[in-house]
Write a structure and sequence with these properties.
Rossmann fold; 9 helices; 5-stranded parallel beta sheet
Length: about 200
């Protein structure tokens, strides 16, 4: 199963992707996590990306595309993968389509979690509060100003992806405002239809 999860920051993409990881035994390829690991490890990509990420802006396409291509080539992606946080722009989507075509790989579905943007701020604040209450560390980009910038970036750059994948017949919309279990059930129902084709 080869999937892309789309939706604005805080929509629940990571949560639902983790459930799909368990169901299909495929890795979740989160570009955000890959980049944060690069920052934590002080790699060249990490050092360059840190300042950009702290401002809530996107890391350049060529850097992210190269990182994703290398990751898809790894052994654990042979049975499939879930892309979370990539592509973010139509240009990235076109590059991904070309890359997958070159590898002889086809996407099974692009899942959009549809949510109310006003609710996302509440979700982010709750995630921060829960993380702090559990004694965890809050991500540097989890604050209201940076989060608003990330939402604006999503609306401007990522939302056009929906039309791109809709035209390709790969987009599936799921109501992300429901409870986590109901969203997971709806995604499973959609993928069962894809899997049977």
């Amino acid at each position: 199963m080869r999937l892309i999860m789309l939706g604005p920051p805080g929509a629940g993409k990571g949560t639902q992707a983790q459930r799909l990881v368990e169901r299909y035994s495929i890795p979740q390829l989160s570009t955000g996590e890959m980049l944060r690991a690069a920052v934590a490890n002080g790699t060249g990509i990490g050092r360059g990306a840190k300042a950009i990420m702290d401002r809530g802006e996107f890391v350049p396409d060529d850097v992210v595309s190269h990182m994703v291509s290398d990751r898809i080539d790894q052994e654990d992606c042979r049975r499939g993968f879930i892309l979370d946080g990539f592509p973010r722009t139509v240009a990235q989507a076109e590059a991904l389509t070309a890359m997958l075509d070159q590898k002889g790989v086809k996407l099974d579905a692009v899942i959009e979690l549809k949510v109310n943007p006003a609710t996302l701020i509440e979700r982010m604040e709750k995630r921060v509060a829960d993380t702090l209450a559990a004694g965890g560390t809050v991500r540097s980009d989890d604050n209201p100003d940076t989060f608003a910038t990330r939402l604006d970036e999503y609306r401007q750059k990522t939302a056009p992806l929906l039309n791109y994948y809709r035209r390709r017949g790969e987009l599936v919309e799921v109501d992300g405002m429901q409870g986590m279990d109901i969203v997971a059930r709806d995604i499973a129902s959609v993928l069962a239809k894809v899997d049977s084709n």
